[in-house]
Every structure is written in structure tokens, then in C-alpha cells.
Design brief:
Layout lengths: L4 E2 L2 E4 L3 H12 L4 E4 L14 E3 H7 L10 E4 L2 E8 L2 E8 L10 E4 L1 H14 L3 E3 L4 E6 L5 E6 L5 E3 L3 E3 L6 H5 L12 E10 L2 H8 L8 E7 L7 E7 L3 E9 H6 L4 H9 L5 H4 L3 E11 L10 E2 L2 E3 L15 H21 L4 H4 L1 H7 L2 H8 L3 H7 L3 H17 L6 H15 L2 H16 L1
Helix pairs in contact: 1-3, 1-9, 2-9, 9-11, 13-16, 14-15
The structure holds flavin-adenine dinucleotide.
The site of flavin-adenine dinucleotide has 39 residues, from helix 1, strand 14, strand 17, strand 18 and helix 9.
Length: 438
């Protein structure tokens, strides 16, 4: 006779959301299983990437003593506006960033995710890898009661399931918690390459004094051929993470191949010297949900909650995702603990999770930037036009032509008008302001 595997809670997915949920529940004594389809936790995971310590500290107050596998602390951050042969840089470097633990670190997920899973395991969670959840099991009334995995004899039961399956949210869709598959307008595709380089070269090129300093630069304009999207250049201990991301719709409409956009970016005259002599070590592509607050799935139903990318919890403007995922996973875990105490796994009870998220930065930020994707969609010229304009202004401003400065200022205004009417600029700025204010 087949054995019935029964737990207090099941978590699907070993990314930051799922592992945070599993750790939280296991630590409180719930019999918790974390199911991950990768060969090891983190095997399939991939990001820019910057990890924010506030979310780790909320989960594991003593995380610093547990020696997380961080790459470099961020001591310089900022934006570069790229034109075809020039750049305007706006970065921030501060002594503030030098305290330990720092606010943010670059991280390689193949190292960080297993470390976080190890903490969940130490707290008592059963971490099962190489196992895919095929579907969620429901009783006759539709309440979630467990999951079916691809293992023989692989049904697992629990009164509560937390789905943290990432952006490709097939289980969430099949449960009917979200209506549509991700349309290409609301999902970005990012390609990233990790290029290994000696630490001393990285430090010299980015102006860092040692391994205790690091830079994270987000780049707009020519990096994505002026199309809505961003590129990034992050320093790791012995390598550089470089990547580009654009809405999937843009790749389709402009018949662009992601690897071609990355290759073009790497060959840009401003970027190429940073990579000189480096050896490609890792290459990959991944989707990023840009669904926004208004198109999120239902976060709770009878016996189930959804956290992280599976629920579209990403703030692309601030390149934040892992901290939203970890916070949501932790809050879902805390709600599951309360549900066990109350013996109530109904949607009504589990909706406390949504309330907690609404009161936290996770849904407050998502609400604030709810119009951001629509802004990019309806203002596709924004990044190209203004990045090029800023570069042309800088060139005009920093070169002397033997003409009065008043005339130079008039020329600058003329340069803007050639690209966009005053009315057009005003419209863009109002739209941007609205997208930033929610
Ligand atoms: C190129 C790129 C750059 C990024 N840069 C940053 C950054 O700098 N900072 C930042 O904070 N965020 C960044 N993000 C976003 C961040 O990576 C995500 O928001 C975050 O990883 C979401 O965590 P998650 O746990 O929800 O999902 P994931 O990390 O995607 O984890 C989901 C897990 O579920 C597993 N899984 C899926 N389906 C099943 C199944 N059926 N059965 C079993 N297991 C399953 C997967 O294998 C995976 O391990 C970036 C993303 C990309 C793609």
C-alpha cells in the first residue's frame, strides 16, 4: 500500500520566497517540506544581482554570524545614461555604505540559495530537491490539500501549501488564482553573463580600493537601443555580472534576439574596457514579471498562499525582487503558523497575509509603481530620447566654442525641441510623475 506523506505545510520552490517561508514555519515547529525541482536549491536560479540585507535580517537576525556567501558590498551605486558613443554618469559613493553588514551585497545565486536552504534545513525543514510539483491537489470543495510531484508515490499532503514557483507560475494559473498566462507586454526577458576577471582589474576599473568595496550600475538608453529596458554592470569578487533586460514585447516587435542586444551592449565603446581580458564563465536568460499591483494573482485561497515572483512581486525601478520575495515568504509563513494555531485554513483567514503585505513596503511600493509598465508601454521613446539628449547637452556644455554662454543655452533648448516639442516634454514629465506617485 502506498504511504501517505503528510506535513503541516508544503512549500513549492526553493528561491528566496519559498525558502524564507519554509525557514519561518520550520523554526516555529511546523513539520515543513520544501520541494525544489533543481538538482540543488539555486541550481535553476539566476539574477543580476543585488541582495538587500534588511530582508535577510528580518528572517535571520543573526545572519551575519552565519557567514552568508556575499560577493561585494555595494559602496557605489547609480545610473549611467548611455548614448551611442558617450555616457552621462550619476553615481553615489558614501562612507555610509562601509558599515558591516552593509545594506546590500552582490550575490551569486548558485551560492546564496543553497546557503539559505541550509539555514531552513537547520531550522528543521525537509528540503527535497530534483522533484517537480506537477499539480496542486484539491478536495471536492476546491480547498488545497497537497501537491502531486513527479516522484513515484509522490503525492504529499498538508493543510497549507505555499506556492513560490517563480515567474513561470503554472501552478498559480492552473489553480485559477490568475486569469491569464503572462502576456509579453507584462514580462521582461533578461540575459546575463558572468565574466571572470582578476579582482585587482575589477578594482582598478571601477575605482574600488579592495574586496570590501563594490559597484552596482544600472544603465539606460543606448544599452537597450533606446527601447524601454535597462542594462546592468555589477561587480562580484572575481568577476563582473553584465546583462540587459527589456519587455518581451519589445524583443518581438523589433525582431531582436536577446543575445544580440547583450553582445551589442558589451561592445559599446564605454562598456568594452570594463570587460577587457575577461573570460565568459556563465550565461543565461530569465523572465522578470512586470505585471504590477493591478494584475497580481489572488494571494490566498482555501489552503494556499502565493509569494514572490509567482505573484509578480518585483519593483523593477529599484531592481528589487529578492527582498520582496523573502519578505512575502516570511509573512506567508507567519500566517501559516497562525492558521495552525487557529485551526483555520480558509481563504478568509489566510487573507491576513495579504493585509500584512499591504501594510509593508512590498505592496505599498507595488501600489506606488502600479503605472510604471504602462508608462514604458505608452512612452517607448522616453529612454532613448532623454539619454541621447543628456549626452548631447553634456558635450555642448563641456566644450568651448567661443560663443556667449547665453547662445549655448539657446542651442541646448533648440536641441531638445528638435527631438520633442515643449508640449511633448511636459506630457512625458507629467506621465513620469504619475507613474512614480501611483
Ligand atoms: C536578470 C535578473 C536580474 C535581477 N536582478 C535583481 C537584483 O539585482 N536584485 C533583486 O532583488 N532582484 C533581482 N531580480 C529579481 C529576483 O531574481 C526575483 O524577484 C527573485 O528571485 C524571486 O524569488 P522567488 O523565490 O519568488 O522565485 P525564484 O527565485 O525564481 O525561485 C523559484 C523556485 O521555484 C522552483 N520551481 C518552480 N516551479 C517548480 C515546481 N513546479 N516544482 C518545484 N520547484 C519549482 C524553481 O526551480 C526556483 O528554484 C532579477 C531577476 C533577473 C531575471
Amino acid at each position: 500500500m502506498a504511504t501517505k506523506h503528510t506535513f503541516d505545510a508544503i512549500v513549492v520552490g526553493g528561491g528566496p520566497a519559498g525558502t524564507a517561508a519554509a525557514l519561518t514555519m520550520a523554526r516555529s515547529g511546523l513539520k515543513t517540506i520544501l520541494i525544489e525541482r533543481g538538482n540543488f536549491v539555486g541550481a535553476k536560479n539566476f539574477f543580476g544581482g543585488v541582495m538587500y540585507t534588511h530582508a535577510i535580517a528580518d528572517l535571520l537576525p543573526d545572519f551575519w554570524e552565519r557567514t552568508p556567501p556575499f560577493e561585494r558590498p555595494l559602496t557605489e551605486q547609480g545610473y549611467w545614461m548611455l548614448a551611442p558613443d558617450s555616457v552621462v554618469r550619476m553615481t553615489h559613493k558614501s562612507e555610509h555604505y562601509k558599515h558591516e553588514p552593509a545594506d546590500a551585497y552582490t550575490v551569486l545565486r548558485a551560492q546564496f540559495d543553497p546557503w539559505l536552504a541550509e539555514q531552513a534545513s537547520k531550522a528543521g525543514a525537509l528540503v527535497v530537491t530534483r522533484t517537480a510539483v506537477l499539480r496542486v491537489l484539491q478536495d471536492s470543495k476546491g480547498k488545497v490539500i497537497g501537491v502531486r510531484t513527479d516522484r513515484p508515490d509522490g503525492d504529499v499532503y498538508a493543510p497549507i501549501v505555499i506556492i513560490a514557483e517563480g515567474v513561470n507560475n503554472l501552478l498559480t494559473q492552473r489553480l485559477g488564482l490568475i486569469k491569464n498566462d503572462l502576456p509579453p507586454r507584462f514580462v521582461a526577458l533578461a540575459v546575463k553573463e558572468y565574466i571572470s576577471l582578476p579582482a585587482k582589474d575589477i578594482q582598478a576599473r571601477f575605482g574600488l580600493t579592495g574586496a570590501n568595496e563594490g559597484a552596482a550600475i544600472d544603465i539606460f538608453g543606448d544599452a537597450t537601443m533606446g527601447l524601454p529596458g535597462t542594462a546592468f554592470l555589477y561587480t562580484d569578487k572575481a568577476g563582473i555580472s553584465i546583462g540587459v533586460g527589456m519587455l518581451l514585447d519589445e524583443f518581438i516587435q523589433h525582431k531582436l534576439r536577446p543575445y544580440e542586444v547583450l553582445a551589442r551592449f558589451k561592445n559599446h565603446p564605454v562598456i568594452q574596457p570594463y570587460l577587457e581580458g575577461g573570460k565568459p564563465f556563465e550565461y543565461g536568460a530569465h523572465l522578470i514579471p512586470e505585471t504590477g499591483y493591478d494584475r497580481m494573482p489572488k494571494l490566498a485561497a482555501d489552503g494556499v498562499m502565493v509569494a514572490g515572483d509567482a505573484a509578480g512581486m518585483v519593483d523593477a525601478l529599484h531592481r528589487e525582487g529578492t527582498n520582496l520575495a523573502m519578505t512575502a515568504g516570511r509573512m506567508a509563513g507567519l500566517t501559516a503558523i497562525k492558521a495552525h494555531q487557529a485551526g483555520d485554513f480558509s481563504a478568509t483567514f489566510l487573507n491576513q497575509y495579504r493585509q500584512d503585505l499591504e501594510n509593508s513596503f512590498v505592496l505599498k511600493d507595488m501600489k506606488q509603481y502600479r503605472r510604471m509598465t504602462d508608462f514604458l508601454d505608452t512612452t517607448p521613446h522616453f529612454m532613448g530620447t532623454y539619454a541621447n539628449f543628456l549626452n548631447d547637452v553634456a558635450l555642448r556644455y563641456f566644450t568651448a566654442h567661443g560663443i556667449p554662454k547665453r547662445d549655448m543655452e539657446r542651442q541646448i533648448v533648440g536641441m531638445l525641441q528638435e527631438r520633442r516639442s515643449f508640449f511633448g516634454v511636459a506630457q512625458d514629465m507629467v506621465k513620469l510623475l504619475r507613474a512614480m506617485r501611483g
